[in-house]
Amino acid sequence: MSSTTPQLGEPLMQIRNLDKSFGGVKAVDNVTMDLRAGIVTTLVGPNGAGKTTFFNLITGNLARDGGEVTWLGRDIAGIKPHRIARAGVMRTYQDLRLFDGMTVWENVLNATEYGALPLPMSSSARAERRDRIERVLERTGLADKRDTRALDLAYAERKFLSMARIMATRARLWLLDEPASGLDPNSYERFLTILREDVAGGVTVCIIEHNLDIVIGISDRIAFLDRGKLLADGDPQSVLNDPELARIYFGDRE
Ligand SMILES: Nc1ncnc2c1ncn2[C@@H]1O[C@H](COP(=O)(O)OP(=O)(O)OP(=O)(O)O)[C@@H](O)[C@H]1O
User: What topology does CATH give the domain 9-88+172-254?
Assistant: First the structure.
């Protein structure tokens, strides 16, 4: 897939009338939204709202029932997840999906092989990639753990390894599924710093998050899903101050 260079605020990914049902459950119901260059969009909503299913649909992990998803103007229907990743759309998973028997270094290296890199690589490209991984390990606090197996890392280190895998690629869109859940305050600050730096460097982020402090701390825009439907999509204050959405979010609906 080729790539063009959208300017700040232009749509990178356009999602139109996206649908997915599991049996009788409409997990994603006619969702239309844009993910715009350089913008942090937070997906919020109660458990079972369809947030992870939405990610699975736009990364090619699940086949949609209907609707359209374009990346840099091209329809990505039927394209395999690894090819969508290579085109610049990378994700994390709630359950992280690290390679537990591989070291930190090997986990990150593996991700760069699925990221938006031209293959095969010249020796200078390999050296550049090595430097990039070094820098990412420094920023995520994993430099001293490079030879440690993922299995032997602490909880927060595993979360950062899943971030490092994305950071080391040249992905332009990061889809993060609860990346900060359960982090201690120091780790959380490190996470926010990384996110802010990389967004300033041009990365676009869509993040699923339940913690409202985090949502307020990072969002340019909030998309609110409930029972598969996109109920709101706008600036953080207007979404968070909507009493009806608060009722749904906090479980006090009629
Ligand atoms: N593979 C599947 N098979 C059947 N039903 C599914 C499947 N995946 C999701 N669902 C259902 O689709 C709906 C949306 O689930 P999804 O996991 O996308 O919600 P979510 O907003 O990510 O929830 P949470 O915040 O709890 O992670 C739920 O009713 C869920 O039970």
Answer: Rossmann fold (3.40.50)
- Domain range summary for the chain, segments of one domain joined by +: 9-88+172-254, 98-170
pTM for the whole thing?
A: 0.92
Of ligand 1's listed atoms, the one at least distance from the Cα of 62 is 1
Ligand 1 centroid from CA 49, angstroms: 7
Q: Which of 192, 244, 247 is closest to 42 using CA atoms?
A: 192
- Beta carbon of 8 within 6 Å of any ligand 1 atom: no
Query: What pLDDT digit, counting tens, does each position of 29-80 carry?
Result: 999 999 999 999 999 999 999 999 999 999 999 999 999 999 999 999 889 9
Residue nearest atom 8 in ligand 1 by C-alpha distance: 53
